[in-house]
Amino acid sequence: MAQAWKCSGLRWSADGPVLVWDGGRHSALTRGKRVAFGVAEGVVRICVGARGHTCPVGAAVPGRSTGARCEECARLDRAHSVAADTIADDPRPYHVYLAWFGPGMVKVGITAQARGSARLLEQGAVCFSWLGLGPLMAARRTEELLRAALRVPDRIPYAEKRAVRAALPETVADRAREVAELYERAVALPAWPESLVREPLRVVDHMGVFGLGGLPVAVGQVNELVAGGVVGGELVAAAGPDLHLATGGGVVVLDTRLMQGWGLVPAAAGELTVPTRQFKEAAGVQDGLF
Q: Does the pLDDT value for residue 146 go beyond 50?
């Protein structure tokens, strides 16, 4: 029997996306590469633990969970989290940013300066600009200011991001327009915290990094992995945690967060044998994916 590997998730590096495995092994993901793996027979998905520690009870978690944690580990993971707004004493400087995912989809967020643009790549932001830099609480107050004054959300569901990736504007200028317009409205607000230094508008575009130019419309997505199931396809694009895989039935999106907690093995076959969901808006596609 082939050795089973456990995936720690997809990470973005300067060279592009890589899958990280328990133990430190990395697998680079390049467009055009064949991605094929199977889930070991007779196994269950195990909680990935919290904050670098294994789950103390080795709890089983649902196949459709993108968090891959049991309730207790999820609680512990968020107990000291900037994203969950449970800490206020982080001394590091934080960026406030505006991120664009498609027409009408701009969000505001914060990320530690030390992380650079990694957070934007992880979210699948097609383009973004920094807005300001300062202490954590000043960055958080600015985020709240934009949400209240300009009605800018701090979250956009992945389903909405996926739905527009194959129909994005072709030019960098068109993709940057909404970020630039919102930036001007944001810097004109009078109630900015004094400790937050405003950053100049400089839109960074990830269209090429993600490989979204000419992307075929996805016909569906992987719902979950199952014991004995196989995932296979040619990688045509990667954005955030998502891999867009060309299969015999069309392009299918795999959220790599669904891979965490499973024992995965190499697979020679390239057919999808895991549960999938067809996108209803994919015109001209049969009712069943496979």
A: yes
